[in-house]
């Protein structure tokens, strides 16, 4: 039998110890042991991206990584995005541009988009579609997700942004 | 979807990896990016008693120009291939294939060494390695040995690697002047394995093809080197007639397994189409 071991990593900035069997997948550790339920289990077969978390500067499907592989790593999940009650530009963008409907894919989308914008602060629509292709959405048809990421990118570059969504524009008027 | 229990090892140097492989024999499996192995373990198609994680082994990382060759550490990820300026300059085909593999998340984890060692005919690097005439460095208790890509793939999940060995490096010769290359892949969607795909590397001098290598993905139990198809181009101008003839010869060696991507006839026909596309693009890139 495989012995349990203690794994230490930084989770959304906080040093975290957790006791796991080597075979435990990161998504289960996060959701079942650490109450990090933002990353979702969509397919469990490495296809949908709903379980995406950021590990040491890489977007990773947490259903396809063992918790023991994360020893010493820095992890970021959707729970680490809003700071002091203020939404991250990506969270604001997804709200303003209606980048979600049911919201199931959203934590994974935002976490993936965050790493994309770190690597490329000014992506074209084509860049966004290519580099977001590991995240599936069953609701939106992706158009508003692309706009949400463009909104966040502009805001993160320090530009003034307004929503392109007619309803949201009305609300904020 | 939880793997069978196993013991986990995370050695920090190559000699430790080899010692662990020696100790646990065929009960052990190496873990690279884990994006072929972990899905198989979750489905219980694989159930190793010991998992030896290569992530801390620094010797297995890095891309370098050494003499007339590019040396790539086995643990180099797909995204590292895509973003490498050295490869963009000398071997752009590697980034071209990596961009067509899986999806962004998988490419942060999946490694070149893992994609090759897995021995899956659906994987894209094996054909590209054959077309680029790669050599693999395999290390074990015996020291190191070199195996050519054309001799590495023995069958479905069956390669020249023996249980005590680890692939440490991939060596690729710098292409001579006048060389053009391309990888054409037909897939149903992002993240899908090829219905059929072809890698082509051709060298042209005074409008005549002087060297050619063509290899095919997912139309046989391993990637296939299309020797006759490539030989048919040598001494000729790579025009539409020559391309069509080479594609027809490549289709003759196809032996695909029917699945949801298509039946034998369709996959074989698509392999022909991919050979044509790869050759057209490669030939257009020969200009110097
Ligand atoms: C959704 C999805 C889509 C995918 N689509 C594609 C695709 O289109 N094209 C494609 O090519 N691949 C595809 N893959 C597979 C992916 O590229 C894998 O990452 C790759 O096949 C294996 O590399 P790895 O580093 O993850 O290896 P692992 O999964 O860790 O290992 C695979 C096998 O190789 C062995 N191994 C690994 N490294 C070494 C080494 N250095 N020496 C000896 N043995 C070693 C392991 O023991 C294991 O048996 C896809 C995967 C997923 C999850
Ligand atoms: S749950 Fe991990 S990719 Fe779908
Ligand atoms: S909003 Fe429902 S899956 Fe994307």
Q: Main traits of this protein?
A:
heterodimer; A: 173 residues; alpha+beta; Ubiquitin-like (UB roll); DNA polymerase, domain 1; 2 domains; 5-stranded mixed beta sheet; 6 helices; 5 strands; elongated; B: 288 residues; Uridine Diphospho-n-acetylenolpyruvylglucosamine Reductase, domain 2; Uridine Diphospho-n-acetylenolpyruvylglucosamine Reductase, domain 3; Enolase-like, domain 1; 3 domains; 5-stranded antiparallel beta sheet; 4-stranded antiparallel beta sheet; 12 helices; 26% strand; globular; binds flavin-adenine dinucleotide; binds FE2/S2 (inorganic) cluster
Written overview of the protein:
The complex is a heterodimer of chains A (173) and B (288). Chain A contains six helices and five strands; from the N terminus they run E-E-H-E-E-E-H-H-H-H-H. By secondary structure, chain A is an alpha+beta fold. Chain A has two domains: 5-78, Ubiquitin-like (UB roll) (Roll), CATH 3.10.20.30; 89-156, Orthogonal Bundle (DNA polymerase, domain 1). A five-stranded mixed β-sheet of chain A has the order 2-1-5-3-4, with helices on both faces. In chain A, a hairpin with a 2-residue loop joins strand 3 (52-55) and strand 4 (58-61). The longest helix of chain A has 14 residues, at 106-119. The radius of gyration of chain A is 17 Å and the shape is elongated. Chain B has three domains: 7-53, Uridine Diphospho-n-acetylenolpyruvylglucosamine Reductase, domain 2; 60-173, Uridine Diphospho-n-acetylenolpyruvylglucosamine Reductase, domain 3 (2-Layer Sandwich); 179-285, CO dehydrogenase flavoprotein, C-terminal domain (Enolase-like, domain 1), CATH 3.30.390.50. Chain B has helices at 14-24, 37-42, 78-83, 85-90, 92-98, 104-109, 112-117, 125-131, 149-152, 227-231, 240-252, 264-284, and strands at 7-9, 28-31, 50-53, 63-66, 69-73, 135-140, 143-148, 153-155, 158-159, 166-173, 179-186, 196-205, 208-217, 224-225. In chain B, helix 11 runs antiparallel to helix 12. Chain B starts with 6 loop residues before the first strand and ends with a helix. Classes of the chains: A alpha+beta (173), B alpha+beta (288). Chain A binds chain B through residues 1-3, 5, 21-25, 28, 44-47, 49, 52, 58-61, 63-66, 68-69, 71, 112, 116, 131-134, and chain B through 1-8, 10, 31, 34-35, 38-39, 41-42, 51, 53, 55, 79, 102-106, 108-109, 190-191. The structure holds flavin-adenine dinucleotide and FE2/S2 (inorganic) cluster (2 copies). Flavin-adenine dinucleotide binds next to strand 2, helix 2, helix 6, helix 7 and strand 10 of chain B.
